[in-house]
Each structure stands twice: as C-alpha cells, then as structure tokens.
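Researcher: Here's the sequence for the chain we discussed earlier.
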Amino acid sequence: LRKLLLWFLPELKTICSSNNVIAGDYLEEISIKKCPKLKRLPLSMRLINGQLSPLPSLRYIETEEERWELLEWDHRDMKNVLKPFCRPSVMLKNIQMGMNLSSPFSF
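Model: Thanks. This is the structure I predict for it:
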C-alpha cells in the first residue's frame, strides 16, 4: 500500500479491527478528508532504540487540523512523530471555495 486516501466517508469509524494495523513501510501518502467519525489511524511503526521511527517512505499526511487533533493513536508518541509530515488539506479548501482544481496527487 503506497497511498491511503479516505475521502468523504461520513460513516467511517475505523479502517481496521481493533487488533490490526496497517504496515506502513511503503506508505507514501495519507489523505483524510470529510471522515468525521474516524477515530483511529492504526499504523505500524518501527521502534529503533526504544523510539518510534517515522514511516520510511512517508512524504505527507493531508487532513483537516481538527481531524488530526481528534485521532487516537496506538502509541503515545505516534502523533508527535508523524506531526512533521502533516499539511493542511489544500484540495478540500479549494473545493469549499468552489474552485475546480486538479488533485495534487499523482495517480
């Protein structure tokens, strides 16, 4: 899995059962838009010398700031390790403003 795009899924609460995680070694992009019930983003991250290591291929996480703040994490440090990869949801802002711009993602 290289891209995880969760867009306009108003009833989505989780993407894995409580015991499962998404292997993130090859994950490059995460985009979450308009998923108000999503509570957990279950990513598998490596521990190196007892510290969480960022996903090796991750380029960015795109989501609404409010969504980011409400997500629950499997490890207490996960949010802090991933925060530098976060960027605001530019495409969503453009949609809300009525602009018709092509997606910033390369499919």
